[in-house]
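U., I forgot to send this yesterday:
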Amino acid sequence: MHVDQHFGAAEGFVLYTVDAERARLAGVLEFAAEAMDGNENKLAEKISALAGCAAVYCLAVGGSAVRQLLAAGIQPMKLDEAEAIEPILQAISCGVREGGVTWIDKALRQHADDGRFERMAEEGWQE
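Result:
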């Protein structure tokens, strides 16, 4: 499998959970074929479907999609050419393990913060 589509016209996304050791397939999203017509409405469905994802890799992504993805907390990652998914997953896993990749570090901090509030709620805390 390869990353080889423009975000707005993508007919599908393959979702992975990635940790310091490995990547695991988490799901597949499929969409109807879209024309590259500047129709902004098609973006909302894709961005909503990606909720909870830290990043999305694509071959190209328009400015409006970048703004909407960032507002949803999803880092758009534009590639210069089609690329196999496996090396990307390995690089992400390495970034999780070793740090130093800005968007990965940010996602890990946010995930850790999310867990902190859940633990506080379970333990019972007062303002």
